[in-house]
Amino acid sequence: MSVKLIWGNVPTWAYDSVKGLLECLKTVEPSTYEHCLRVGEYSRKLARDIGLNEYEQKVAEFSGLLHDIGKIGVDKDILLKPGRLDPKELDIMRSHSTISETIVKPLATNPFFAQLLPGIRGHHERIDGEGYPDKKIGDEISLFARIILVVDTFDAMTENRVYRKGLPPEIAFAELKRCGGSQFDAQLVKAFLQAQPYWKDKDNEQETYHEIIKKIA
User: Fold this and answer.
1) Cα–Cα distance measured from residue 62 to residue 40, given in angstroms and rounded to the nearest whole number
2) DSSP 11
3) 180 has which bridge partners?
4) Cα 217 from Cα 122, distance rounded (Å)
């Protein structure tokens, strides 16, 4: 897979900026904060394993770290509601992707952060056009958004929450495979299913986690 990016450098202040944003999220909703750390790490690894270069991997990583930062603006009663959301609540919840984009936009005067915005805004777009907020279809959706959707969904399904226990990985894998080509990019699902079981053996599973935690602690 290929992606068109303006080559550049990751600014030296990038981690400190992300640290500040994530620290705000942590005070509001700690489980979402930890979810973002995992999604950032998984996004980088999937980008690597489909052959993207190191700069592209960093774009994937930072897009994943910040994809849910907009949940700062979602009421906790909605964010943590154990039952089905009503239509109004669902609209509020779905606004988090555009809120995330709005929060990150002031940093987008830097080219690196500008290239994070499509992945952040579009991480709930579906290949079949039934996603949000823009109902894009197939390759109209940023590759980084498609990467995040796969790993974000896997982590959400397998994560333990206050109101439910996470699913076993094999059930989450089956669901990703079932929805490949409709909700998810089928090629990315295939790459994820092949690579993810070996990530813990291949390298440090929590590289991003420790890098961010080190700066926050």
Assistant:
1) 6
2) -
3) 184
4) 31
**DSSP calls for 109-167:** GSHHHHTTHHHHHTTT--TTS--SSS---GGGS-HHHHHHHHHHHHHHHHS-BTTBPPP
Q: Which residues contact 123 (CB under 8 A, 6 or more apart)?
A: 63, 67, 97, 145, 148, 149, 152
Paired tokens of 159: 């994560």
Give the global pTM: 0.90
> Cβ contacts of residue 196 below 8 Å, gap of 6+?
42, 154
Expressed in percent and rounded to 5, the helix, strand and coil fractions of the chain are 65, 0, 30
User: How far is 109 from 115, CA to CA, in rounded Å?
Assistant: 10
The pLDDT profile of the chain, 217 residues, written as one tens digit per residue, is 656 565 668 999 999 999 999 999 999 999 999 999 999 999 999 999 999 999 999 999 999 999 999 999 999 999 988 889 999 999 999 999 999 999 999 999 999 999 999 999 999 999 999 999 999 999 999 999 999 999 999 999 999 876 678 899 999 999 999 999 999 999 999 999 999 988 875 555 455 555 654 444 3
- Residue 54, exposed/middle/buried by CB under 10 A (0-12, 13-18, 19+)? exposed
